[in-house]
């Protein structure tokens, strides 16, 4: 069985320990010859890297592992897979993405609304640079991208590298939802389902959840959620804000029955209700920094100092870590397993634009994803998706064209904003806060004739 050479870009992420543990757990299904972690933040990555050395010494001693900040060392011509999970601007800018909109009476969230716009404008440049660095060395490596906001990043990468068929944008939230449904049903695995799903990233719906015998569990799940609420599969380890997010699924199912929504739709369907719950002084970024980030780095440091990972609890039910690996396995071994991924529409959803980057089930093969046709979708979902897609497309165009006008149009279209006046206020505030991390957004110079 071939052993693969893998690069993780974003080695200092709090999600990396789960990914490393999953690589060790699946070493027989997805054997690795060389694993390299790359990050621009040496201090953060070193904590994770030293934890990894202990973990692999005990559980994967044959693995050639190291971590680096040197791009020349990381990008090589024998790479098979590149896993990307970068966060341009770090948690400091995530905090601004959330708090600036909240200060103006708007939703402050990492990937949705103005916060997602800001994060996207920062992410495009670095993600494009990663693709260029990989392709300067090899055309064969698969680039599997977790980088958020995945919808905006996916559109940008498709526009910048339209002929590159070995880039796949993915998100673990549909996988998290499948795990949550499975736990609610008494222990079913995500692989037990044949899901029917459509939408955009963080903006979609499950329409059916078949098992291998053709039974659809969606009606049963709908009733279970309406009668008992909804929690994530790993709710014992989740922060308070995530529990509140999952709890909103009951409201969405009650108001719009027949489908199971992605949790992120709460921000678009109930912006006023969600806004009242958000604390402008302590956002999810603060919650993560005080909670998950603190726990992960303290535990990784403890493991490194102790020299053993045997009693470590740094990883618990990490869907994020396992998902990207089983996606890679399906591609590498031509398994054709079905996963929900982000692809250019091109007729998959008949009544949506071809250039929309839709999130749909697809069989993943060595030749790439083979999506399953969706057909036409209902007017309500179509209208919501078209508006969100227009926002995402305009955001990318604003970046590529350095256009202030298109940035303003994008934010005005977003359902968490709507008001053009508030869109301009939040745009100007985000431009100032991001500084050089944003492209220079220029206002078009026009001479307007006075109507007499």
TrEMBL record:
Listed GO MF terms: hydrolase activity, hydrolyzing O-glycosyl compounds; metal ion binding; oxidoreductase activity, acting on the CH-OH group of donors, NAD or NADP as acceptor
Cofactor-binding details, from the entry: Binds 1 NAD(+) per subunit.
Increases basicity of active site Tyr, annotated site positions: 110
Domain of life from the UniProt record: Bacteria
Any one GO biological process: carbohydrate metabolic process
Keyword annotations from UniProtKB, A to Z: Cobalt, Glycosidase, Hydrolase, Iron, Manganese, Metal-binding, NAD, Nickel
Location of the active site: 172 (proton donor), 264 (proton acceptor)
Binding annotation for Mn(2+): 171, 202
One Pfam family from the record: Glyco_hydro_4C
Keyword set includes Metal-binding: yes
Positions of substrate binding: 94, 148, 284
Cofactor: NAD(+)
InterPro entries hit by this protein: Glyco_hydro_4, Glyco_hydro_4_C, Lactate_DH/Glyco_Ohase_4_C, NAD(P)-bd_dom_sf
Residue span(s) of domain Glycosyl hydrolase family 4 C-terminal: 197-417
Family: Belongs to the glycosyl hydrolase 4 family.
Protein name: 6-phospho-alpha-glucosidase
